[in-house]
Amino acid sequence: MGVTVIYDGDCPLCSRYVHALRIREAAGAVELVDARTCPDLVARFRAGGVDLDEAFVCFVDEELYAGGDAVNILALLSGESGALNRLNYHIFGNRAVSRRLYPLLRAVRNGLLTIRGIGKLNTPDGSTESVTPPRRRRQQSPARHRAGRRSP
User: Fold this and answer.
1) Is 146 helix (H, G, I), strand (E, B) or coil?
2) Is position 26 within any domain?
């Protein structure tokens, strides 16, 4: 059985998740692919209608699983060996639950990337490089600015 997992290596949640699961024990060889290091792969998925910013992806015996389905199949493959795998299995081992919870996981990922100042895989110019957005200067509101002045 061959398993390939494509994940965002700049996302701490994604990285820790794929490295913590004990998939190897159940599935044999597992290939972990950081999408940030493979712009051609990101482009191929995008051309095929799969946005890697919206969906975590894995292949099991050449069958594609994305989003909640990918988390579900990985939970089933990792089984119940170890505390994290057991928790993962009981939460995401149910396909319907995985599909319902996946948008929350994606929101957490997007929030973590924003907090860390890291752009999404599909940046506006089509590159997959991490982009740090420029910092905005905070401006005082006109009312607050006037209130701070003394009248002559």
Assistant:
1) helix
2) yes
